[in-house]
Structures are given as structure tokens and as C-alpha cells.
TrEMBL record:
<protein>
    <recommendedName>
        <fullName>Small CPxCG-related zinc finger protein</fullName>
    </recommendedName>
</protein>
Length: 81
């Protein structure tokens, strides 16, 4: 069984309420004895579901979320008037 630790950052925007946020995930990726890839996501010290499968807005709990590359939310705030 092989294992790899990676980090991935994502930007999120809620299409329901307009809330935007960014998060960096620690991901432990392993390949089991049946050659299946298993990814375990952590946000800080807490295990969390994959943000890519069923993201939820922390402000309004909507699941209508756009996922973008990191830095998109921060750059949008720079352009606000």
C-alpha cells in the first residue's frame, strides 16, 4: 500500500447568497490492496468530506457552490468598490 500527503487549496463562491471563501486541505492519498485510490481530507485538525463532492456554504448552508482555483475569492475582494 502506497501513501502520499498533499495539500490543495480551493476558492468557493455560493451562488445562493454570494458568500465567498477559500480553504486549504491536507489530503492523505493511499492505494489499497485492490488498487483503489482512497483520499482522506482534513481541514485543520478535523477530518472533512471532500469539498469537491458536496460543498456547502458556511453562511447559508446552500449546496449551489462554484469551485474555483485558489486566489479567486481574494482577487474578487480587491476589485470591490
Amino acid at each position: 500500500m502506497s501513501a502520499q500527503h498533499i495539500q490543495r487549496a480551493y476558492s468557493f463562491a455560493c451562488l445562493q447568497c454570494g458568500h465567498g471563501w477559500e480553504s486549504t486541505y491536507d489530503i492523505d492519498v493511499t492505494v489499497d490492496e485492490h488498487a483503489r485510490i482512497v483520499a482522506v481530507y482534513h481541514l485543520g485538525d478535523e477530518r472533512t468530506p471532500s469539498p469537491l463532492q458536496s460543498p456547502q456554504c458556511p453562511a447559508c448552508e446552500s449546496h449551489k457552490i462554484r469551485i474555483m482555483r485558489p486566489g479567486r475569492v481574494a482577487s474578487a475582494h480587491l476589485h470591490e468598490i
